[in-house]
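new request in #modeling-help
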Amino acid sequence: MRVTSMVPDVEYAVQQSQQNLSTALQQLSTGLRVNQPSDNPVASASMVISLAQSANVDQYTTNVTTVSGQLQTSDNAIAAVITSLNSAITLATAAPSSTITAANRQAIAAQVAGVLQNVISQANSSYQGSFLFAGSASSGAPFVAASTAYTSQNGSLTASSPLEAGSVTTVSDAATGQTFTYTAAAGDTVGDLESAVSAAVTAGTLSSGTSATINSSGELAISSATGLVASSTDSTLGLVSASGTALTNAYAYVGNSTVNKVQVGDSTSVATNIPGNQLFTSGTNVIGSLTTLINAIQSGSDSGIAAASNGISTAIDYLSEQRIPLDSTISRLSDQESYLSQETLTLTTQQTALVGADLATAATNLSQAELANSAVLAAASKVLPQTLLNYLAPG
Amino acid sequence: MASISSSLSTALQSLMADTGALQITNNNIANANTPGYSREVPEFQEVPPAPNATLSIGGGVVLEGFQSVRDELVNSQIQQETASQSAANAQLSSLQQIQPTFTTSTEDIGTEMSALFSSISTLSTSPTSSADRQAVLTAGSNLADAFNTASNVLSAQQAALNQPVTGDVSQINQLSQQIAALNPQVTTLTQTGQDGGSLEDQRDELLQNLSALTTVSITQTAEGPTVTTGNGTPLVVGNESFALSTTTGSDGMQHVLDSQGNDITASLTGGDLGGSIQTRDRTIPGLSNQLDTLANQFATAFNAAQAKGYDQNGAAGTNFFTVPATVSGSAAAISVALTDPAKIAASSDGVPGSNGNLANLSAVQTATLPSGATPAAAYSDLVYQVGSITENANAESNATAASLLQLNNQLNSVSGVSVDEEAANLITYQTAYQAAARVVTTVQALFAVTLAMGTAAAE
C-alpha cells in the first residue's frame, strides 16, 4: 500500500493513548471503574438497587439501636415494678392485725402507697420523650390519678341533645383497669351515651355504680366511687374535666392498646411497645391489687391482705411472663444487628465488585498507559520528521 | 532522414514536457496538505516518427495534460462513514450532558428515593416527633426536586438541539448551492476530455461536508451528480439546488421542510442533522416518558398509601405529592403537596402516636408499580437506558473514527500526495530537463561546426 502521510495515524494513536491514560488516571483517582452509567450500564443499574438496599440496611441498623434502647428501658421498668411488688408482699406479710398495732398498720399502708407510687412512676416511664406503656398515645402519661366524677363543660343538655357524629368519649375505670370508648354515630344523642355507659357497667368494662347522668345544671356528669378518668372530643359536651374528689391511690389507664411495629429488616418487624393496660391493669390488675392491699391494710382486714398479697404474687408471675417475649425481642434485635452488619459488608463488597477499581490493577493500568503514551510520542517524534528531503543535498 | 534541426525540436519538446511535469509536481507539493486534494500525475505522450521519414526515429515527447487520481468507491464509503460518525457524535454530545443527572450522587433520584424511605423508617420509631415528620417532608421535597431537575435537564437538552437543526439546514443549503454551481463547470471540462482537477476536488470536498450534516445519496449523471437526502428529497440536480427550510412545529420544535413545503423531519437520518433529530425526537422523549411514568406512578402509589392512614390530628390522609393526572409532564410538575408535618398519615387508627400506616408508606418501596417494576427497579432501568444509549453512541463514534482512519488512509494511498514521491519526481524531471538542455547545447555546438565549415576557423 502506498503510504503518503503518517500524520493521521500518529494523531489517532496519540489520541487513543491519551484517552487510555485519562481513563486510567480517573480510575485511580476516584477508586472507581464505573464513574458514569455509560462506563458500564449494567453495573450502574445494579448499583442503584444495591445502594437502595444499603440505605435500607443502614436505616434498619439505626432502627435496631433505637428500638433496642426503647425495649431495654421497658424491660428495666418492668423489672423495677416486679422488685416493688416483691417489697409490697414483704410489707403485707408484716401487716396482719393480729401482730401489729393499728398505727403501725397505717404506717405499713403508707409504705405500700409509696410502693404504688413507684409502680405508677415506672408505668409512666418515658424514652426519648415518648411514654413507653401508653400504647400509641405516647405523648401523655398513661396512668392518671382518678377522680370520683368528671363533668362536661357545656350545660343545658338534655337526653335528646344530639352528639357530633364521629366524636369520641372515653371513660377509663380505675377499678376495672378498662376503658370504655363511645364513638357517636350520626343521630346519636346524650341519652344514647348515658345508655351506653350503663351497658358498659353491665358488661363489666366499668365498675358497678358508674353512671352518666345530666345534673341539675344540665351538664353531663360521669361518676364512680372507685375513680375514673373521662375525656371527650364532642362539641356538644365540650371539654370534660374532673369535678369529683381526687382519689389518692386510684389510677386509671388513659393510653390505648395499640402496638407499634418498626421494620428492622426487609421482612422483619418488631413490636416496640407493650400497652400499659396489658401489663398493669388487664388480666392481673397490678395497680388494682396494690390499691386493694392498701385498703385492706388500712381497714385491718387480714383476709383482705392475704387475698391482695396473692393477687400481687399472681401479678409478679404475670409480669415475669410478659418479660419473656420482651427479652426474646431484645435478643433477636441483637442478632439482627449482627446480621445487618454482615449484610452491610456483603453489600459493600458487592458494590466494590460492581463499580470499584482494584487499586493495584488501576495503578498498573496507569503505569502501562503512561508507558504506552510515552512510546507513542517517542515513535511520533521519530516518524514524523522522516522525509526524503532531509537526505537530498541542498541545491 | 534525421536532421540536426529535428533533434533541436525534440529537445525543445522534452524541455517543455519536463517543465510541465515539474509544474505538476510543484502543484502536488503545494497542495500536499490541502483537504480534498487529489494528486495529479503528468500524462506524457510519445510523439510518433514523421510519416515520410526514411529512418524511423521517434518524434520525442509531448505533455498531453494531467490526470487526477481518484477512487470514487472509497470516496462514497467515506461519505457514508462521515454521516454515521457525525450522527453518533451529535447524540453523544447531548447524552454526555444528560448522563451526570442519572449518575449516582448525593442528590440523584435513587439516592433521594432511599432518603425518603429512610426518613419514613426513622419516623416509625417516633411517630409523634415533629422533627422526624419534618424530615419526611424535606426528603419528599428533595425527591420531587430531583425529578424536576432530571426532567429539566432532558427538556433543556431537547430544546438546545433545535439550534443544530436550523444551523445544519442552513449549511446544507449553502453546500447544495455551491455543488450546483460547480456541476456545470466540471461537466464542461470533462465533456472536452479534460480532467476535472481542482473543481472536482472541491465538489468532492463539498459532498463530504454535506455527508457530515446528513446522509445523502449521490447519483452520477451527465450533468454531474444528483444529490438527494437519504429519503430521496432532492438537494442538487444538475446546476439547480433545492433549499430545505425550517419551521416551528406544534410541538415547539424546529421541523425541516423540503422545497415543496413537506415535513421531512422524521425521515432525515445520519449526519449531525440526523443525529440531532434522532436524539431530540426519539431518544430524549423516550427517556422523558420513562421518567414521567416513574414520577407519576410513584407519586400515585405514595398518595394511595397516605390515604390509607390518618394524620396527627386524626383526619384521613391527604395527597403527599401533587402530580398531574396524565403521565406526560409528571416529572417536571411533581411537588410535595403537604406543608404541615402533622399531615403525614403515620397513624393507621387515627390515634396520633400510631405508626401503623408508615408500614404502608414504606411498602411503596417494594411495591410493583403499574409499569411492572418497583420504584428502585424502574429508576435502575432508566439509569441503564441512559448508560446504554450513551455507551452505544460512544462505541459508534469510536468505531466510525477507526473506520474513517482506515478509509482515509486507503484514499490517501491512491489520491494523497507523498512528499517523498514528489521529491523523487522532482529529481527525475530535473534530470530529464538537464539532459534535454544538454541536447540543445550539443545541437548548438553542431550548428556552430556546420556554420563554420569552409571558413578559416574551420581550416
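bot summary: Chain B touches chain A through 66 residues (CB under 8 Å).
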